[in-house]
Amino acid sequence: MSVLIFIDQSEGHIKKASLEALSYGVKVAENLGVGAEGVALGSASEDLAALGQYGVKKIYHVNKATFNHLDAQAFTSVIAEVAQSSGAKVIIFSNNVDGKAIAPGLSVKLKAALVSGAVALPDTANGFVVKKTVFSGKAFANISLNTDVKIIALNPNSYPVSATGSGTAEVVSFDVKTDATKVKVTAVNKVEGEVPLSEADIVVSGGRGLKGPENWGMIEELAKLLGAATACSRPVADAHWRPHHEHVGQTGLAIAPNLYIAIGISGAIQHLAGVNRSKTIVVINKDPEAPFFKAADYGIVGDAFGVVPKLIEEIKKVKGVA
Amino acid sequence: MKILVCISKAPDTTTKIAFTDNNTKFAADAVQWIINPYDEWYALVRAIELKEKDASAVIHLVTVGEADAEPVIRKALALGGDEAIRINASSQDSYYIASQIAEVAKQGAYDLILTGKETIDYNGSCIGGMVAELLNLPYVSLATKLLLNGSNAVITREIEGGEEVCDVALPVLVSCQKGMAEARIPNMRGIMAARTRPLKVVEPVAADNLTSIVSFELPPAKAGVKLVPADNPAELVRLLHEEAKVF
Ligand SMILES: Cc1cc2nc3c(=O)[nH]c(=O)nc-3n(C[C@H](O)[C@H](O)[C@H](O)COP(=O)(O)OP(=O)(O)OC[C@H]3O[C@@H](n4cnc5c(N)ncnc54)[C@H](O)[C@@H]3O)c2cc1C
């Protein structure tokens, strides 16, 4: 019996959301009194054994280049093989791009109950109940998983990465029967040097109050200074001022960074739905009646074009940047 | 070309979320139901766009729901679609719902099955992947573009920090999100035509529920905003640095 955690990597680099899932899975295993194991697919350039510092004891490595790109069906079948042969009772994913692609198929393949969007550790006092976000962050539901094998997909930014700093994991190469993929990746376009929005600790977001795409310079400068990702409201993406993937909200990406800075965004209910799990919210808006202030921790009522450049100067002072 | 589009009803995005029966049920009484935006804006509209390029294409819509789901599936038919199927069941378990859709899909032998990336109520993002696995089909999730090229689909999908293009032979199941299609609204002609398009009701097959909802809860209320004067951003920086400790 064990907890099996999917190690999600891209080009050999282990994603931050996956380290969260790893830390979470190790804790789940500890609470259940069983061991924690990992499974990684594709070539790995990072040292998998070093993941032992997060508390995982063993990592099954399916080291085949065919798995360097995601094929949900093939990944599902490989992970099912590993789960069955290792006797995993709980399987953990990050509820990120890959987790959303693989976990549902695995649920069918193993006939294992799945909760996606988990935000807390399972409550095993009475069965196996996991809290997840529903209504795009406007509420939570406690879901009971009613099968022997269980799958949890953990929302990014819901569980801290915790490394003990010591220990190495035993890396076992795992050979699978299946290695045929049907989905062929023909091109990858990554925005270089940008922090992926779903993984960002800090997000600087702009709305229609910024008047036009030409005014995003200060948003980008502020984001760069804070090591933040940039986001926007829906009308901004609809007007093609910013790329689609920056759209956050009920019908865009739902995020939960440590700090969300909303500039020139009114705070419509659909927008709030995607950002209200942020730990700290700062709102800069010239309208004191803007609904966003009700959801904010800190606010400045003022003109963004006056406030933001001054804010940048002040942050530079704190950070010691010239 | 036969396309199946999965349609779910969802509460209007302005719905105030509340629960009844000791926080075990969503207070659905006064709720205005809409087509789940991802299903409508991206999956359905993309199917319609594909049919506009290939008049021989046939679009079927499927929903799992009781009679109260009919206005929503009718509205979807008014946008486009040749026929709708309502599976007369209700469940909050994704596996149960996916099993129902898979049954309909098997009988229809579709080349392309489209879903929205998630519903805006339960945010499971599960149905597409489950139906694909039940049908033993490849699954491409979080797609932002979908083109057909003979018997293949060329799909752009989201990855962390960018996107990638992939090529897959039909049949395939695709979950759709922003970027997929141009916005459109139903016109009078569509609404009239929808009345004559068949809406079949089928009974569910036996399937298990793997999960159940124990209770709901609302997030704790915010303590209230601390306002800082516009001419003193230094104070905001101090608060963020020393009090909230976010940088
Ligand atoms: C079904 C549905 C789904 C939706 N989904 C989403 C979603 O996922 N995400 C989303 O964001 N929206 C969504 N919306 C749209 C949402 O209702 C709002 O229309 C939208 O969020 C408003 O964007 P905004 O705040 O940028 O613009 P506006 O509402 O126009 O607000 C602009 C704000 O900027 C302020 N402002 C103006 N000038 C300045 C200045 N110089 N300095 C400082 N402040 C200034 C104004 O006071 C105002 O508060 C959805 C709507 C529907 C119907």
How does this structure look, described?
The complex is a heterodimer of chains A (322) and B (247). Chain A is α/β, with parallel strands linked by helices and 322 residues long. Chain A has two domains: 2-173, Rossmann fold (3-Layer(aba) Sandwich); 197-319, TPP-binding domain (Rossmann fold, 3-Layer(aba) Sandwich). In chain A, 26% of the residues lie in helices and 27% in strands. Chain A is built from seven helices and 17 strands. Chain A has helices spanning 16-32, 72-86, 97-109, 217-226, 234-238, 269-275, 304-319; strands at residues 2-7, 9-10, 13-14, 35-41, 58-62, 88-94, 113-118, 129-134, 139-145, 150-154, 170-173, 184-190, 202-206, 229-232, 259-263, 280-285, 298-301. In chain A, the strands form four sheets. Chain A has a seven-stranded parallel β-sheet with strand order 7-10-6-1-4-5-11, with helices on both faces. In chain A, strands 14-13-15-16-17 form a five-stranded parallel β-sheet. In chain A, strands 2-3 form a two-stranded antiparallel sheet. In chain A, β13, α4 (217-226) and β14 (229-232) form a beta-alpha-beta unit. In chain A, α2 (72-86) packs across α3 (97-109) and α4 packs parallel to α7 (304-319). Chain A is elongated, with a radius of gyration of 21 Å. The N and C termini of chain A lie far apart (55 Å). Chain B is an alpha/beta fold. Chain B has a single domain, classed as Rossmann fold, CATH 3.40.50.620. Helix content of chain B is 29%, strand content 31%. Chain B is built from six helices and 15 strands. Chain B has helices at 37-53, 70-79, 94-108, 127-135, 188-196, 233-243; strands at residues 2-6, 9-11, 19-20, 25-26, 33-35, 58-64, 83-87, 112-116, 139-149, 152-159, 162-169, 172-176, 199-202, 211-217, 226-227. In chain B, the strands form three sheets. In chain B, strands 11-10-9-12-8-1-6-7-13 form a nine-stranded mixed β-sheet, with helices on both faces. In chain B, strands 2-5 form a two-stranded antiparallel sheet. Chain B has a two-stranded antiparallel sheet with strand order 3-4. In chain B, β9 (139-149) and β10 (152-159) form a beta hairpin. In chain B, α2 (70-79) crosses α5 (188-196). In chain B, 48% of the residues are buried. The model of chain B has no long low-confidence stretch (mean pLDDT 95). At the A-B interface, α2, α3, β7, β8 and β9 of A face α1, α3, α4, β9 and β10 of B. β17 of chain A pairs parallel with β15 of chain B, so a sheet runs across the interface. Flavin-adenine dinucleotide (FAD) binds at residues 207-209, 233-236, 249-252, 264-266, 268, 270-271, 274, 284-287, 290, 303-305 of chain A.
